Amino acid sequence: MTPLERALHERIKAEGPITVEAFMEACNTYYYATRDPFGTVGDFTTAPEISQMFGEMVGACLADCWLRAGSPVNAAYTELGPGRGTLAADALRVMRSAGFGGDVHFVETSPILREAQRAAVGDAHWLDSVDDLPQEPQLIVANEFLDALPVQQFIQGTERRVMIVGGGFAFDRDGQTVELSPIREEIVRAIARRLTTKGGVALFIDYGHARIGRGDTLQAVRGHRFSPVLANPGEQDLTSHVDFETVERAGREAGASVTRIVTQGDWLKRLGIEARAAGLTQSNPERADDIRSAVERLTSAEQMGELFKVIAIHSADWPAPAGFE
Ligand code: SAH
After folding, report:
1. 29 CA to middle of ligand 1, Å?
2. What is the pLDDT of residue 83?
């Protein structure tokens, strides 16, 4: 039994079956607090870990938006769930060269990942929650952050729970499922409200769907393979598809401007990933195959290009970022 498995057994014995949301929250909090899960020896690989080009495109997008907003000197770079800090390091290299001199804020709960982030971006400030965001215009990015936040599942109007059967975990009901994530919506609303009052832009990049109503999308990944959701609690990554229609609505209802929802492949191509790949290849001809395959992984429909979506939320006085035309 894993330590978290024992704790969850005790909890369910004491409280009765717990909601899927409580189970996912407990699992992911433990999971991220106890490891660096990224890369080939880890459980999964995210876009910034595939290639520096991903963070560079994010940096180019934010820098362009900041320049067109009049280069406010007090604007800050803020990232939610920065992982190893790779995206931030690549994005900030581009942004600094465009003249951006602002502070860096990381919203991160995992002490282990905070250490990795410190190694990548030494002068960052760490925050526990989006409630602590600074009172400045913000350039915000969240890649594969919302998908790790817990979801509620409802079956015929009743919230699905996890119980213990024969010493193992089991769902208390099955059937046509509706997923909701109040915590995701609350975070998007909090950011949209802050942007509306202080100015700025936020990019949300994640795997998910553009329209609501996909049913049960909860999944577990361990060692680059799918695993049963209730197995190995706290030892595998639990995620669910992000419902971008709800993100869009939450942003708009909070008073912010919202772009279209576009696919990651289209977005990266509109931002010029192919030109960047050509430039990188010219200066590193020995890496030509790696660069080509990274572009393929990030943009092709068979890989991350279509499943991953991007949306931006911005204040009315800031321009819409590029890539969403
Ligand atoms: N953006 C990174 C990492 C994605 S994994 C990348 O693309 O590589 C999810 C990240 O969100 C991790 O850094 C994890 O520790 C963090 N995280 C998960 N739940 C969180 C929460 N509730 N508050 C803050 N950070 C959280």
Report:
1. 10
2. 97
Alpha carbons 320 and 259: distance in angstroms, whole number:
7
Strands 104-107 and 76-80: parallel
Using 50, 70 and 90 to split pLDDT, how confident is the model at 168?
very high
DSSP string, 2-56: -HHHHHHHHHHHHH-SEEHHHHHHHHHHHHHHT---BSTTSSB--HHHH-HHHHH
Beta carbons of 25 and 249 less than 8 angstroms apart: no
C-alpha–C-alpha distance, residues 132 and 135, integer Å? 9
Q: How far apart are CA 226 and CA 140, in angstroms?
A: 30
* 83 C-beta closer than 6 A to ligand 1: yes
Query: Mean pLDDT for the chain?
Result: 97
Ligand 1 and 43: CB distance under 6 A: no
Cα of 166 vs centre of ligand 1, distance in Å, is 33
* Pocket probe mutation, ligand 1, options 108, 126, 238, max atoms within 8 Å of Cβ: 108
Tokens coding 161: 């729970």
Is pLDDT of 206 > 80?
A: yes
Distance CA 75, CA 278 (A): 32
Whether 30 lines ligand 1, by a CB cut-off of 6 Å, is: no
Length of the chain: 325
Tens of pLDDT, residue by residue over 223-268, are: 999 999 999 999 999 999 999 999 999 999 999 999 999 999 999 9
The CA 107 to ligand 1 mean position distance, Å, reads: 8
Question: How does pLDDT run across 77-125, given as a tens digit for each residue?
Answer: 999 999 999 999 999 999 999 999 999 999 999 999 999 999 999 999 9
Is 59 touching ligand 1 by the criterion CB < 6 Å?
Answer: no
Residue 9, C-beta contacts closer than 8 angstroms, at least 6 positions apart: 1, 164
Name the strand (E) or helix (H) holding 211.
none
